From TrEMBL:
GO biological process, one term: proteolysis
Entry keywords, A to Z: Hydrolase, Protease
GN (gene name): Contig11025.g11781
Keyword field contains Protease: yes
Gene3D superfamilies listed in its UniProt record: Glutaredoxin, Leucine-rich Repeat Variant, PPPDE domains
Name of the protein described by the UniProt record: Thioredoxin family protein
Compositional bias (Polar residues): 149-174
Pfam family membership, one: Peptidase_C97
Family: Belongs to the DeSI family.
Domain PPPDE: 1-128
Residue ranges, annotated region (Disordered): 146-174
Lineage: Eukaryota, Sar, Alveolata, Ciliophora, Intramacronucleata
Gene Ontology molecular function terms on file: peptidase activity
Length: 598
């Protein structure tokens, strides 16, 4: 009827005024004065006019029923609104939960389309008043207390049986439209035509764990973080399928994220499920997604840390190490910027560049203004091409320019994402082929140092920090710093210590992923302390603070040192203290020892 007369009544063609339900697990669920169910196609709304296959769900039936129980208070006779909160909204929400996408938007939006017509604006208020007079007989899924009524899982569900008594029909929009069309356009009313959405399940059973601390406000959560030795927080929603899938393995789920919106805002929650883990008041780890293996491994690790010495590190009194200072160190001095530009300009105009580099046009244009914060990507690409062929002082000048460019988000992101492989060759590979113990190789030492300063500035931007979370980049950088600790030049050693300090400080993933590389690094530091030629205070102090950062709250490293290296570790540090007689060195060694030894 809507298709036939809609244009003359409301001024536009409407294919149908749909009532919808969703068929899954052999039953049709719909919103009818509450959440109801019947055998598919045997609801009080008659046989469906149209069916639509939504796809396949992996959500178990008992989890779906738990979801319905969670949303039941929002789908009752009292909450029903013929235009704003109707059967189609319920079907859409179920489809979102089961499939990750809802029913077609035009079905959900149909009431709005009607209300925006002249007829809709006139009869809308009357239709809302009239909805209470319509009745259906259905199987109410939940009784008035929110408890699930017994469901028949086999055989035919008898139509007309009603566990909750007769209830008003809150869904039959067709009947409402027909009723008013009859009075105004001379069209007789008739039974509703139902449209169905269908989903299938490949999985029928699951278990669900109970027991939750429902966080009601941000103050409660902050108090728990402060007072609880180990805490796991899950930001979730009952309408999120991955959240429901992970629920059985999480022991302390809150009942509803909606009950604590200030918590979600404070933690800047952008997706769910999202997990935060705290160890003695400090954020220990976070991750997004329903990853059961990561959840379990993190909980196990958190439990172990509560019982280990490394879990007490936060509460120790340090003399030199500042674990709460989370700002990475930078090499941000501008130096002689005019001389740098002159070197770059001279090399760009050299015969070698003209022969080997395809073009320097964009770089040459940029050099006129030389605005570091506004270097075009094309100019960066040409600069990298020049670095690949440069030698000696020109190579140093070009890398020094990169050091400054690393301090800006857009240039740092482009350099790292597009040209990291150049670093692997011209920095890591090139320097590791050289003898860094050669005291006469001054140019090489200067190049080595400026490369480390450039790498250290990667942590000045969020793009840089994010890039170095990657396994390959992270491993390459740690190994390069470890190699650099053997340099004859104490300034190189100091720069390498700062870079590794920054990396550990800014690394947000599981520290266990770095274990093999950090083990080599701390053993190399210990080896350097045994070197009688290492007497430079700056280099020693940098290595000690880097060592503190490696050890801090790193149970695996602490365990390795105590079980395998304790004797030699203590000996080398004690010898170092006697060799470099400086109170800051002594206090830094005390800081390391109190984290490791009783």
């Amino acid at each position: 009827m809507a298709a036939q007369f809609s244009r003359q009544l409301v001024g536009k063609h409407i294919e149908g005024v749909w009532h919808t339900g969703i068929v899954v697990y052999g039953k049709e669920y719909y919103f009818g004065g509450g959440i109801s169910y019947d055998a598919p196609g045997q609801t009080p709304f008659g046989r469906p006019t149209k069916t639509m296959d939504l796809g396949f769900t992996e959500i178990p039936e008992d989890i779906f029923l738990e979801f319905l129980r969670e949303v039941n208070p929002r789908f009752t006779q009292e909450t029903y609104h013929v235009f704003k909160h109707n059967c189609n909204n319920f079907t859409d929400e179920c489809a979102q939960f089961l499939m990750g996408q809802g029913i077609p938007h035009e079905i959900v939006d149909l009431p709005n389309q009607f209300l925006n017509t002249p007829l809709g604006k006139m009869v809308g208020p009357m239709m809302q008043q009239a909805q209470d007079s319509l009745k259906v007989r259905s199987h109410s899924l939940f009784d008035d207390g929110g408890h699930q009524n017994p469901l028949q899982t086999t055989g035919t569900i008898p139509q007309g049986s009603n566990f909750g008594g007769n209830q008003p029909n809150m869904n039959d929009m067709n009947s409402l439209i027909n009723q008013f069309a009859s009075g105004m356009g001379g069209v007789g009313s008739g039974p509703g035509s139902g449209g169905q959405s269908t989903a299938s399940s490949n999985y029928s059973s699951s278990s669900s764990s109970k027991g939750a601390i429902a966080i009601k406000n941000l103050q409660q959560l902050q108090k728990l973080i402060k007072e609880t030795p180990a805490l796991a927080i899950d930001f979730w929603s009952p309408t999120c399928p991955p959240c429901i899938r992970i629920k059985p393995v999480f022991e302390s789920l809150a009942q509803s994220n909606d009950e604590c919106r200030d918590c979600a805002m404070a933690f800047k929650i952008t997706s769910i499920p999202q997990f935060y883990f705290y160890l003695r008041g400090d954020q220990f780890r976070e991750f997004k997604g329903a990853r059961e293996d990561q959840l379990m491994s993190t909980l196990i690790e958190l439990g172990e840390l509560v019982m280990t010495k490394s879990s007490t590190h936060k509460n120790l009194n340090y003399k030199q190490f500042r674990p709460m200072n989370l700002a990475p160190q930078g090499f941000t001095s501008m130096g002689n910027i005019d001389k740098m530009r002159e070197f770059v300009q001279t090399f760009a105009n050299s015969d070698d560049v003209k022969k080997e580099v395809k073009s320097t046009e964009n770089l040459q244009k940029w050099l006129v203004g030389f605005k570091l914060e506004n270097m075009p990507r094309e100019a960066i690409d040409e600069l990298i091409s020049m670095i690949e062929i440069a030698e000696d002082k020109f190579k140093i000048a070009l890398i020094d320019l990169l050091r400054l460019l690393m301090m800006y988000e857009h240039t740092s992101a482009h350099i790292l994402n597009r040209h990291w492989n150049t670093f692997e060759v011209t920095v890591f590979g090139y320097i590791q082929c050289m003898d860094i113990r050669d005291a006469d190789a001054k140019v090489m030492q200067n190049y080595h140092m400026i490369c480390l300063k450039m790498l250290g500035n990667i942590y000045q931007t969020e793009a840089g920090k994010e890039f170095l979370q990657g396994d390959d980049a992270s491993s390459a950088l740690i190994d390069f710093c470890t190699y650099s600790f053997s340099s004859i030049n104490p300034k190189v050693v100091f720069a390498a210590a700062i870079v590794l300090f920054n990396h550990i400080l800014c690394y947000k993933r599981e520290k266990s992923l770095l274990y093999n590389h950090l083990e080599k690094a701390i053993l190399k530091i210990n080896e350097a302390f045994a070197d009688p030629t290492l007497v430079d205070f700056e280099a020693v102090y940098g290595l000690l603070l880097c060592e503190c950062r490696i050890v801090y709250q790193n149970n695996d490293i602490c365990k390795m040192i105590v079980e395998k290296q304790e004797e030699i570790f203590k000996k080398n540090h004690q010898v170092l203290e006697l060799r470099v007689k400086n109170p800051k060195v002594k206090e830094s060694i005390d800081d390391v020892f109190q984290m490791l030894f009783d």
